[in-house]
Task: inverse folding
């Protein structure tokens, strides 16, 4: 289910991935593993916004450079 605010946010910055289930493939983990990594603060560029996880891919990838 997609909301108009989610679509607007995606249009503004396509480098943001929302929700642990969508972030998991970028981390190479299962959804549960990604959620645990997010909750423990081990993912650079990730932030919890209004109860939902968001990952800034540019910051995440820059942490490996």
Result:
């Amino acid at each position: 289910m997609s909301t108009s605010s989610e679509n607007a946010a995606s249009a503004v910055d396509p480098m943001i991935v929302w929700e642990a289930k969508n972030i998991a493939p970028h981390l190479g983990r299962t959804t549960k593993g990604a959620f645990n990594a997010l909750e423990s603060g081990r993912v650079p560029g990730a932030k919890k916004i209004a109860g939902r996880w968001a990952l800034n891919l540019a910051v995440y990838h820059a942490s490996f450079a």
